[in-house]
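Supplementary Text 2. Reproducibility record for the structural model of the 338-residue chain.

All settings were left at their defaults, and a single model was retained for analysis rather than an ensemble. We include the record here because the model underlies the residue-level annotations in Supplementary Table 4.
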Amino acid sequence: MKTALITGITGQDGSYLSELLIEKGYRVVGVVRRSSSIENRSRLDHLPPETRKQIILQYGDMTDASSLVGIIKKYEPCEVYNLAAQSHVKVSFEQPIYTSEVTGVGALNMLEAIRISDQEVKFYQASSSEQFGKVEASPQNEQTPFHPRSPYGVSKVFAHWITVNYRESYGMHNSCGILFNHESPRRGENFVTRKISLGVAKIKEEIDNKLFLGNLDAKRDWGFAGDYVEAMWLMLQQKQPDDYVIATGESHSVREFCEAAFSHLGMDWEKHVESDQAYTRPAEVDMLCGDASKARQKLGWKPKVNFKELVKMMVDADLAFVKDNFTYKHSGFRLSKR
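Retained model, structure tokens:
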């Protein structure tokens, strides 16, 4: 049985990737921090019980290289998927050093752990469209220059290039997936898409009346996380390692996401959404749109879920979540969250 190691297994992508790998017959080992609470592992609860039983959770830390060396030697994985990161762009401005240590140097620590273990390991690095940042050409592909606009983006650029460097220097099977924004009902509540879908559900159920967001004109290439983890796996099945942009090729604004989410539940978004400067960033990325032609040609990958289907999926899931977790009086006063 193949063993796959996933860092960041408790995140959105980690849960979908775990599910995919187990379906394909892998043993899955997930690296978790000792400070990771039960609540932070809730995304794994979405998995069927028989799937969860096949996941081994191992304590480790991306900032502690020695712990990673021990994990590699203990489980001898044939594939390592590095999804661990402080992945919120706005938070990276508030915690730039921590973001750099986990997101950037953390990737280096894992690469070193694999290198000194002297084992045959295929390595996947979760690169990001935020590396492109202030783009001068659209859509962006594998040859588009990087111009990151946040500590998160800068950290991802370091992780990307150190992965390429180890591939070229030591002949390691390292591949980078430059993934554009990918969402799902398992997305963190502090990300704008989930903030919108959850906000719409609360407004529909009369728990809230307003939704405050930052830049409504920012445009992103949004896809479904469940589709994107398949691309990760496909990269490590290739004979030769390489880097791939993974995207839908369509760009939609935050405003469009709001319109689609509210209209799905028969509401007018303009009556409830307000832009608040408190949610803006010191440096904005105005528009990102990816060209995944290479992935289509070499991996045979393409997205299955379109923009409107993604929005509907997230809103429906959060409406069910709100109905199950919130109680309130007919006046709209919130009593409790169970």
